[in-house]
Amino acid sequence: MYIIDDFIRFRTELIHVPLKEPISISLEQIATLLCCTTRNSRFILQKWIALQWIAWIPGKGRGNRSQLSFLVEPDEIVVSHAQQMIYSGQVAETLTLMQKYTVTLPRANERFQRWFRGQFGLQWEREQGKRIETLRLPLGEPLSVVDPIHAYLRSECHISQHICETLLRYNKTSGRMESHLAYHIEKNESGDRWTIFLRKGILFHHGRELLASDVIYSFQRLARENSPYQWLTREISEMIERDDRVIEIRLTGPNHLFDRYLGNEHLAIVPRDYVEQVGTDFARMPVGTGPFKLIRNDDGLVILEAFESYFGFRPHLDRVQFIALQKKTDENEQITTYGMRYEMDEVVNVEQTGEGNNGEWQRATSDDWCVQYLSCNQRKTGPTANLSFRQALQLILSPKQMLHELGGARHEVATCFASWKRDSLPKEESQRESELCLFEYVRLLLQQSNYQGESLRLHTFTDRDHVEDCEWIKEQCAMYGISIEVHYYAVSELLQPITIEQADLIHDSATVGDDTELSLLEVFLSYNSFIYSHMKDEDRHSIDRAITHLQSLQSGIDQQKAIAKIERILQQQIAYLPLYRNRIGLMVDPRLHGIRINRQGHVDYRTLWYKA
């Protein structure tokens, strides 16, 4: 970059000279303008000549001045250099670089931004005579973990599901498990012995066929490698490889939900030989059997490529690329450049809109079943370990008031995590509406808790909605004399055990997917769940007993009741405060078809196709 900066400084000093018009100049003058020696100025000129930035005719004879012509302007050089950096995947570095030239070269920055926005959406390219369709989308942060046994963020899990697949799949319409990598599953009457039959001819991305030994290895790996999802396999007492495609799994007790476990994204099947070959790199570059294979994942660029040997239907798209912006772009500009744009401010059903340049864009909406909540740390000595204090906090923080005052994508009050109970109103909120002396009641609870004005640590992520929520929570608590210190963390920092332990409260979103029951078990049992991490030992034991009972049940209705009972245990203790659910709107290019939005607001890239 020094050579570009030198050229910009030099051209700025001679800005009055028209492009391609020669001027007379000596090496001494050039050295003065560049603040360097005459010898160094010769080296710099040679580089500029080689790059065809200038034309140079040296003066002949002593005292004769040379002729110099500018062939390009700095704007063009900077934009071209930035484009090459983007093509090489240096996205973060490029955006930082262009920020540097916002003042000195505003036209270059504007030109680059127009070009950069045009790189998103559907791109057609020709490779070896074939048309390649690439959907290019923005990504908020780089993906450091895509390994299914460690993936935590929704974005990580979503992309991981396109790469690594499970034995079974949950059908949200029927509420039943369907065959996938396994074409058949059998269980005995008591539900403690399961037999899995694998499909033939399924290939991993590196070319080897899926075998029963890979299934056993994948399950053992999750249990062995400190995965936060070890609860999925903790009841497995023995796994027997009957042959290359048949596995018998024996459990320590009945579990009629075990087929649902087999469809959990964290129990995806991975190839033993490849995992052992690449070691820790597998977390960033996993290999599976999915419809897309991961061919690149670094700080700037993630590339999924259609797997030609996929045993199911090959994706219509050839590639899906994610460019890590690490900062938000202007939302108004996203409409015409990305092909898909998440709207977080307006709620309507699928309809025609007049926005966009190529015909009318469609707006599709989806209720986000994930719940924003506040976890109360009962394991830390302090106010949140006291039930009276948590009761006061519950009365102070009204989700209904939060939705009214903050608006945006906050769609409905969440009274619990269980989706089938989403219309119920908890007693505490009803009391809050009719309580005439709320302030006195809260003050009484705070006195009972022996709260002495201690400052509470509220930890959360740096996303805008988390910031808005936590600032609102801080203001509400201050009205009742409760002091809150808000601390914002990157994902990797917030997930550190010490960060979780130090927090009195953590603001997060509980992921509730298509299989609601399994999603709730994940919230209550996973080691990286803030609710689990903050839970008292007595509550953990109570939940373990309730889950043992849940697993003995075969009726779906009975299972839902058991899950609701588990949640009641935690709500009675006010282990967490559910706040709200979002409504997600998606603006879509009318040429884009096959859109499926799941309950987490994500699009299935396998079914997307463009009508040219």
What's a quick, concise take on this entry?
The chain is α+β, with helices and mostly antiparallel strands and 612 residues long. It is built from 22 helices and 24 strands.
What do you see in this structure?
It is a single chain. The protein has 612 residues and is an alpha+beta fold. Helices cover 35% and strands 23% of the residues. The strands form six sheets. Strands 15, 16, 17, 18, 19, 20, 21 and 22 form an eight-stranded mixed beta sheet that branches. Helix 4 packs parallel to helix 6 (106-117). The two termini are 41 Å apart.
Total strands: the figure is 24
Rg from C-alpha positions?
A: 30 Å
Q: Please estimate the helix content.
A: 25-40%
CATH architecture identity of the largest domain: Roll
Write a concise keyword list for the protein shown above.
single chain; 612 residues; alpha+beta; Arc Repressor Mutant, subunit A; Dipeptide-binding Protein, domain 1; Dipeptide-binding Protein, domain 3; 5-stranded mixed sheet; 22 helices
